[in-house]
Each structure stands twice: as C-alpha cells, then as structure tokens.
Amino acid sequence: MKREEKPISSGSAPRRKTHAVAVPGNTGPVIIGGDAPVVVQSMTNTDTSDVEQTVCQVMELVQAGSELVRMTVNTPAAAQAVPLIRQRLDDAGIHVPLIGDFHFNGHVLLQDFPACARALAKYRINPGNVGIGESRDSQFATMIDIACRYEKPVRIGVNWGSLDQALLKRIMDENAGRSAPWPAPSVMYEALVTSAVESAAQAEALGMPADRIVLSCKVSGVQDLIAVYRELSVRCDYALHLGLTEAGVGSKGIVASSAALSVLLEEGIGDTIRISITPDPGSSRAREVVVAQELLQSMGLRNFVPMVTSCPGCGRTSSTLFQELASNTQHYLREQMTVWKNRYPGVESMNVAVMGCIVNGPGESQHANIGISLPGNGETPMAMVFEDGKRKTMLRGDNLDEQFQALILKYVQSHYG
C-alpha cells in the first residue's frame, strides 16, 4: 500500500481548555488549569495533629518538588494544628499551599476552627461522605459557604469507594428503565461523572465561581480511570485533578499510575496530578513526587531535573562500573538542582547520557548535551566524553565519577544562566 507523503509527527494532543484555578500562596498563587503547566502535588501521611512530624514531611515533599501538599484534617486536634503548621513553614521560608482533606465532619471543623479555614489554601470535599439524605445538601453548602467567605478554591473529589449512595441508586434505577440496560461498569462510570458534575453545579449555585473549582473522579483500575476521565472531560470545563487511587505498592503502583495518567495526559486531559504509591515501611514519602516529575518529563510536558539517558546493560557491561556511574550521575544532578534551578535557568532541560559500551555509546552520547561512553568489560577504565555532539575529551583512572561530574558542572556554568 502506498503511504501518503506526510511527515511523521509526535507530541501530545492540545491541552483541554479549562478554567484557570488560582490556589493562593504567600509568594504568589499556584495555577491549576488554563494555560498553566501540569502541577505536581502530594499528600502527607503523618498525624496532622503532630506539628513537628507534619512540618518535617511537608518540607521533604517540597524539597522533592511538590507544588501543592494535601493534609488530612479529621479531628479538632488536626484542625487546631493547621495554622501552627502553616506558621512553622512560613518561618522556614516554605510557602507551599496547603490543602485540607475533609471527610464526614469537614463542615464542623471548618466552622469551629476559622483559623484552620483561613490557613488552608484549598479544601478537598468528597460529595460521597459529607452527609446522608437532607443533611448532605446542608453540610455540603456549609463547606462551600466557608470556602466562598475566605475565597478558597475547592476540589470536589469523587471516589468510587465512597459514592453518594442515593445518587448511585438513582443512576441504577435509570439504567433499569432502559430498553437495553448498560453493563455494571458503565453504570458505575456514569455515577462517578454525574456526582462530580452535579456537585460542581451545586457549588456554583451556592456562589462558588467556576474558576475556583477542581474536579476529580478517583478509581483504582487503569482502564476505569481512563474511561471516567474521558467522559468527564467532555461534560465540563473545570480543571481536573488526575490520580489512580489505591494504586498499590512499589513498582505496581508506579506502573499502574503511569499507565493510566500517561494516556490521559497524552490526550490533553489533566491539569494537576498525584502519584499515590503505598510506601514501604520507613521509606520516603517523597518518592511519589519524583515519580510524578519523571512521568511529566518523560512525556515532554515539563522539565524538572536534567535526565540521564542510560542503557540497561548487557554482557558487555557486566561489571558494576557502568551501573554505579549511571546511578551516581542521576543522584548528583538531582542534588545539584537545589542550587542550579535558581542560578542556571533552563538547566532542567539538559540531557545527560551515560552509556556502558562502544556499541551504541558514542552515538547516544552525541545526541545528549553531554554524554560519556564507557568501553565495556575488560578494558582500562577510560571513557570518551561528548559535548553537543562533538568529542570533548577522554577520561582515565579510577575516579571517573568525580571527573565526569566536574565536566557536567563546567558545562552547566558555561551554557545556562
């Protein structure tokens, strides 16, 4: 078959048009939606009433690059702690917006602790558990009224584990009346999308501007999440928060979240993301931030840290020299960004190659801004270094790490800022 003569192109679809939501911060707002880049956020897992631990974890998440941080506010003690946490962070020069995550009793806590309501930059409301029956509407209205009073945006976050049962029954009854009833998954999808859209419309009717509303519909299945957000994206023009809930532990959670979110982001759907990984005991909560950044950067949507291109290794690279150099280089780049991001604008887009042998090493290194190509097994420790496609020098000796890092630093100083 003769192919039509046209260039092969790449890149994600144009971003879906949404309202731009300004989440207030002490040094300026973080914008979700509109023309703003996709925002990375995370959530603490400390007891919020423990001010010291929560402040330390927020700092860790911000250090990793989180642009919004959500905290559980579930008790009077947690609500009392919020303004103290905010003050401690401000005193330390950490001005990240804090989001309050409310379930069941948010209407009470926001009323009883106005200092908490003021200190938070945004409220997360789950329409499935703000109340039952007649109390549902009044308690939802209370939270929206307080958000309007303090000019705070809200995320109306639907979760399939806590759907409004009255709404779900209504959707099921409607389905039963169809001549060809929908399958059960489609009914669930419809309930999730309807809950989000109707709750947002209710919030607007109560005085909440559309540009202070973010929606989410969280599920734990990859195909389910894609189906729900595709439909949600065509039914509204609110900014959307993406995240696979209960994604799992370790690589399973990373793979599942990346599989779901990358499809939606490629289609132009999504304005802020969170990677919800179940952490290993004692491990850093900041891992979810790094994964979110790497997902966006791998897709070409944002740049955060110079990325290392490295081969997986083979029989030609069976020693640990190549593995250690690749790992140490990536660690060095992430550490340096705490200084580089302000001193050398644009450095986050730099590409660094660390290749293990001469098969693809020289060619791949020439494609990077700066790259190193090791000789493989059985050779004297030495490696060619390329800058901007041209051979720069040959490194020799047992301290290739330090030599290569010094060359990277010189390249950064001469090409950025």
UniProtKB/TrEMBL annotation:
Q: What class of enzyme is it?
A: oxidoreductase
Question: Does the entry feature the keyword Kinase, yes or no?
Answer: no
Q: Which InterPro entries match?
A: Dihydropteroate_synth-like_sf (IPR011005), IspG_bac (IPR016425), IspG_bac-typ (IPR004588), IspG_C (IPR058579), IspG_TIM (IPR058578), NO2/SO3_Rdtase_4Fe4S_sf (IPR045854)
Its catalytic activity? (2E)-4-hydroxy-3-methylbut-2-enyl diphosphate + oxidized [flavodoxin] + H2O + 2 H(+) = 2-C-methyl-D-erythritol 2,4-cyclic diphosphate + reduced [flavodoxin]
| Gene Ontology annotations of biological process type | isopentenyl diphosphate biosynthetic process, methylerythritol 4-phosphate pathway; terpenoid biosynthetic process
Please give the cofactor(s) recorded in the UniProt entry for this protein: [4Fe-4S] cluster
A GO MF annotation of the entry reads:
4-hydroxy-3-methylbut-2-enyl-diphosphate synthase activity (flavodoxin)
Q: Where does the record place the IspG C-terminal domain?
A: 308-408
User: Which parts of this chain are annotated as the region Disordered?
Assistant: 1-26
Annotated IspG TIM-barrel domain residues:
27-292
List residues binding [4Fe-4S] cluster: 311, 314, 357, 364
Q: Does the keyword Oxidoreductase apply?
A: yes
Cross-referenced Pfam families, in alphabetical order? Answer: GcpE, GcpE_C
Q: Which EC numbers characterise this protein's activity in its record?
A: 1.17.7.3
Sorted alphabetically, the keyword list is: 4Fe-4S, Iron, Iron-sulfur, Isoprene biosynthesis, Metal-binding, Oxidoreductase
What job does this protein perform?
Converts 2C-methyl-D-erythritol 2,4-cyclodiphosphate (ME-2,4cPP) into 1-hydroxy-2-methyl-2-(E)-butenyl 4-diphosphate.
Q: Which NCBIfam families match?
A: ispG_gcpE, PRK00366.1
Q: Which family does it belong to?
A: Belongs to the IspG family.
This protein's name:
4-hydroxy-3-methylbut-2-en-1-yl diphosphate synthase (flavodoxin)
The scientific name of the source species is Oxalobacter vibrioformis
The record's gene field reads ispG
